[in-house]
Amino acid sequence: MATARLGDAVTVLPSLARTATPTIETWTIEHGSATGCIVIIDATAIAATPSVVFTLLGVDPVSLKTWVILASAAVTAVSTTILRVSPQLTAAANLIAKDVMPDSFTMTAEHGDADSITYSVGIQLLA
Question: pTM above 0.90?
Fold first, then answer.
């Protein structure tokens, strides 16, 4: 389990070409709770027709079970996708969750096929 601090930019996944769903660590927010976050998904190169859905998940520290906070639309092209979580925002499907960040979180990047896509994922935690 990795730790993150409020205001930190967290590299969830560095920029790499991927053809399959990667394993992503669980993060714990150190010294307090975040009210929200911004997730930056930067797809910079594709081969053929890749499709990846990114999902931000809360993690229960006792049972380690997860729940969906926000899932993106499928990323299928070179693009930058911004996901936002905040109790002050208006929810918008696949882009904004009107919610608070739990103290532990993780993500999935579910690949729909084996076509290569180069991407990075970063998170900025908001106080």
Answer: yes
